[in-house]
Structures are given as structure tokens and as C-alpha cells.
Amino acid sequence: MPDDVAGLDDAALARRVAAAGERIDSHAESELYRRLAPRVRLYGLRHLRDPHAAHDLMQQVLLMTLERLRAGKLREPERIGSFVLGMSRMVVLEIRRGTWRRETLLDTFGDMAEAVDAPEPLALDADKLAACLQALAERERTVVVLTFFADKAADEVAGELGLTAGNVRVIRHRAIARLRECMGGDPS
Amino acid sequence: MMSERCEAPIALEALVAYWLGELAASAEEPIEEHLFRCASCVRRLEALAALGSGIRAAVRDGAVQALITPSFLELMQRQGMRIREYRVEAGATVACTIQADDDAVVGRMQVALAGVHRVDALHRLDLLDGRVREWRVDDVPFGPEARELLLLPSASMLKQLPAHALRVELVAVDDRAERSLGTYTFAHTPS
């Protein structure tokens, strides 16, 4: 990563992209893309529950954001986070309604979306995770497996296991903290 | 690199609830506003998402041994997993195997659970060569209407095991005593 952008916050990067306009500050654009990519991808995963759709959303939203920054259409670059969130919400809503029409931004930006070193989704050591799952108490393991394999909220898991939703949240919280600790991460 | 420390990190419980869609829109919005400003909390959410996808992969890859619910089994089937099922009554033995292309094997242990509040499962794995392993699983989860307990062994481990007999005894536990609900034997032969 070039040193001239590493120390800048998101707003400063957005201002640099906007100030460069069509002259294009590729360092600032790449760094902004790299930082915002995981946020949009996670938003997409949360709302679309599909890794491919989330990746697509990320690419579209970030290229639309850079296009608007370059064109000077973003009045408050310091609110870049809120702008990208708003854009993500709008696109997800239109995808759900079936009214989303992809902008032909890849032509404008060439291969930038592919060239930028956007962080890959985090992947855990499968063998270690299997061992950590096995080390949980049976009830904890059943709750986290039901929760994450089936994408079930606490009240749904509770209904299936004859527990209260509060009880499921307690078991789930303990299990996740144990798993994260077992995997070598911060349990909080 | 600019500092990415968060002064007011989102609590893990709130992150989990957000990720699972448990929050009302009014509670979700400020979390999303925060996430779009905060690289540190995004990394924590990313770790949670990775845990979720890791668990899904572990189930699909047959790396998890767990007691599951009927709706969970249905979901595995809907996702196209190849599942071999063995229904076994209390006191009975069922001959079972696993094929190379099976994704999972499920033992459906039929059991009367009316009035039972806690069940423990006593396992005895006999490898038929003098090696025996015993372990107890306390407080196995089951639903209020359950008439069976579904045992999902690790398919990847099962595929490596030689012929063996797994006996599972389910016992009802209350403050005063334990009562056997039934013994179930899975006589496994490699494919």
C-alpha cells in the first residue's frame, strides 16, 4: 500500500478522489475500495445471504461510489460511510424488488475492480474448527450448528429445542465465545 | 496505517443478533451506520461471518458430530446432501454402513420422552478388536414434541473406522434417579 494514503482516514481519501476528479488518484481510489469492500460485502451477505450476490453488490456499490466521487456528486465526503451504506441499502432493496438494473460501470473503470487488492473473505482452519466444535458441550454444539447451518434466530432454535429464546442466546453466546477462544481469537 | 481502534465497540451479543436478523430495523440501523464507519468492528463481524460459514462447511463436509432436530435433517436434505438414515427402536440393533459418496448418516433413535426433562446419552464404541471406548453426553437437547433423537455422527470419521458396534443408552435424569429409556446399537460395517 502506498505510504501517501496509508495514514489517511476514509473522509480524507474520499476528498482526494473527489479533488482529482477525472485526473484520477488511483492510489486513493484503490485504498478507499480496499477499506470499504469488506463493509459492503458483509452488508450484502447479511441481507442477501448469498456470497456471489454479496460480491456483486460490493463491486457495483463501490464503483458507483467512485464514479460519483470523481464526478463531484458527493457533497460531504466526510460522510462517505453513510453514503456507501445508503447506496448499499438502495441496491439491496431494488435487487429484492427485482427492479435492479446494473450500471455499466465496469466499462468506465476498466479492470480496476479486479485489479484492486480487496481483502478476501476470512477463512478459518477447517480441522481446527471441527476440533473446537467437538470440544463444546452437546447443547452448545447443537445450538450453534442449528443457528449457523440453518441461519436460525434464537426464537426459532428455542422452539425446536423446548428452550426459551433467552436461554438460547445465553448458550449461543457462551458457545461462540468458546469457539473464538479455541480458534485463537479474542472471545469478545 | 491509520489507527483502527474502536472507542465504542458493538457488543458481541448485538453483533450476533444483527448477523442473524434478530433486531428490529430501529436497532439495526445504528449498528449498520457504525459498521460503515468502523474498520475494527467490521473485522469482528467478519470473524463472526467466517465462523458461520466455517460451521456450515463443517456440517457439509461431515466433520461435525451432533444431535440434530428433524427440521435440521430436512434442511440438509433440501441442500442436496446425500444422507443415509437408520431408524432404530429401543432395545434393537441396526446394521449400518456409509458409502464413499454419502455426506452424512443419521441414526433415528425412537424414544418415549413424555414427562422427561433431561436425557443423558451413554456411548460405548466397541471396535471388535479388544478396544472399547465409553463416554457420556450430558443433557442432550430435544424438542417438546420429540419422539426420537437424531444422532449425526461425523461422516468423515465414520468413513475411516473399521467394523464396530456403537451402543447408545439414553437415560432420563431427574433430581432423584436415572431411568433407562432404551439402548440402541449401530452395527457398522465399512462399505
* Number of β-strand runs of chain A: 0
Integer average pLDDT of chain B: 93
* Tally of DSSP helical segments of chain A: 11
Helix/strand-derived category of chain B reads alpha+beta
CATH class of the largest domain in chain B: Mainly Beta
Helix content of chain A: over 70%
Please characterize this protein's 3D structure.
The complex is a heterodimer of chains A (188) and B (191). Chain A has 188 residues and is mostly helical. Chain A has two domains: 3-115, no CATH class; 126-182, Orthogonal Bundle (Arc Repressor Mutant, subunit A), CATH 1.10.10.10. Helix content of chain A is 70%, strand content 0%. Chain A has helices at 3-6, 10-20, 26-48, 51-70, 80-97, 105-109, 112-115, 126-134, 138-149, 154-161, 165-182. The longest helix of chain A is centred in the N-terminal third of the chain and has 23 residues, at 26-48. The radius of gyration of chain A is 20 Å and the shape is elongated. The model of chain A has no long low-confidence stretch (mean pLDDT 87). With 191 residues, chain B is of the alpha+beta class. Chain B folds into two domains: 12-59, no CATH class; 62-188, Immunoglobulin-like (Sandwich). Helices cover 28% and strands 31% of the residues of chain B. Chain B contains five helices and nine strands, in the order αααβαββββββαββ. In chain B, the strands form two sheets. In chain B, strands 3-9-8-5-6 form a five-stranded mixed β-sheet, with no helix packed on it. In chain B, helix 1 crosses helix 3. The radius of gyration of chain B is 21 Å and the shape is elongated. Chain B starts with 11 loop residues before the first helix and ends with a strand. The mean pLDDT of chain B is 93.
